[in-house]
């Protein structure tokens, strides 16, 4: 590992570090895109996701004063042949930790490849185009550009709390969180709908444990079955005025029938009714379902794009 400056160190994180980690990520976000774009919920998920062990897979970097100035972790909840890695550093002050953290993570990923029993392994990482130092470091370590994701948003100014009627034969309603069969059907739609995309799958039990904001989860029923779903995400930051669409999925047989738009309109109406000023989501621009077209059609606009880089080991 490349040496850190005198007095700096690395250690394993704990959940007690979550507030300091969130401050770090927010500082990184502000430098890259102009505003914080990460929630306390996402920090907890990253540290506790299946197949991510804080004691083996994650590191934080500390400067000479003991401040957390860097954080790295992998993501591969199912043990498939792909890890998505993240390295965050404090702008300017934390740059000396970027290379050591990436080197630690790449060494750990090689071990995870063997532990998961794969002969070849794909490693992915993301970078906003303004993060030139990070992109240069990824390129130096053998990563190549793969595709782009986009962060999209829509203003809810003037949006009624009463959603428009869905297409004929389609019922849009709240999920029934106490109905185990329905929750499993909800999860199944997500996994089936994203088979042909870059979706990071989660086993049902792990997904269920992460569930929040269930009063903002919606089901599209068609032909007597759960054909589409929308999962919102709760941001526990006080004062947050954005409703977040974490996942929107429609089964292939029911696409191009207006279910996706009807689910979005229901979510937008719900967010507006709660006083949210805007709604947002992330989209894989290479998604073969061309989901970005739907989001543009309902009035969402891209705030920024993030490059995805890939390395095979």
UniProtKB/TrEMBL annotation:
Domain N-acetyltransferase, first and last residues per copy: 173-313
Gene3D superfamilies: 3.40.630.30
Keyword field: Acyltransferase, Transferase
Database matches in Pfam families: Acetyltransf_1
GO molecular function terms listed in the Swiss-Prot or TrEMBL record: acyltransferase activity, transferring groups other than amino-acyl groups
Record protein name field: Putative N-acetyltransferase YhbS
Upper taxonomic lineage: Bacteria, Bacillati, Actinomycetota, Actinomycetes, Micromonosporales
